[in-house]
Design goal:
Protein name: Flavin reductase family protein
GO molecular function, one term: oxidoreductase activity
CATH architecture: Roll
Strand order of the largest sheet: 3-2-6-9-10-5-4
EC number: 1.-.-.-
Shape: globular
Distance between the termini: 11 Å
Number of domains: 1
Strand content: 35-45%
InterPro entries: Flavin_Rdtase-like_dom (IPR002563), NADH-dep_flavin_reductase (IPR050268), Split_barrel_FMN-bd (IPR012349)
CATH superfamily: Electron Transport, Fmn-binding Protein, Chain A
Oligomer: single chain
Organism: Brachybacterium hainanense
């Protein structure tokens, strides 16, 4: 999608295009609300503090799970590897909720003790609780305290860059 096609870019499309050049890791963010699994793919996750260890996630206010996370529901982050590309395409593509849930099940998603699911073959999985929520334009900037983390494996990460997905210097289909 070009800047001129993006519904939220009214002015400064060059700035929107410029930010597409900022690479970031791709993560699966999950929570539960009323017994329902809620999840989305995020590319804006960063370390906010190391004492205590916290991460910050930028999420659209209408993202599945955003309201539950902002209200304090436990949530989890799975940092995705390059071989999760097919899963990411299913979770972000024009698929039904049932197809997305089936894709998570096929990927082996496991429920944490806190409730949300994580991917057992993720590079890292983090169990979090919400520390602070700051509204920023059409987003929520959520800072979560990491309660527990586990490294599962070493593998090239899946990155979001230039409106596609890449790993290292090799571009994967976007």
């Amino acid at each position: 999608m070009t800047a001129t096609q993006h519904p939220h870019v009214r002015e400064a499309p060059a700035l929107y295009d410029s930010f597409a050049q900022y690479g970031s890791g791709v993560t699966l963010v999950t929570t539960r609300d009323g017994g329902e699994d809620l999840f989305f793919i995020a590319a804006s996750v960063l370390t906010a503090s190391v004492d205590p260890f916290t991460i910050a996630v930028s999420m659209g206010r209408t993202r599945a799970g955003a309201a539950a996370i902002a209200a304090g529901a436990p949530w989890a982050v799975s940092i995705l590897a390059a071989d999760h590309l097919g899963l990411v395409r299913t979770l972000t593509g024009p698929t039904t909720r049932e197809e997305r849930l089936a894709a998570l099940a096929a990927a082996g998603a496991e429920r944490t003790d806190e409730g949300p699911v994580v991917l057992p073959d993720a590079l890292v999985a983090l169990a979090c609780t919400t520390h602070a929520v700051t509204p920023v334009a059409d987003q929520l900037l959520v800072v979560g305290e990491v309660r527990r983390g586990s490294a599962h494996r070493e593998s090239p990460p899946l990155l979001r860059w230039n409106r596609g997905f890449v790993t290292g210097a090799q571009t994967l289909e976007g």
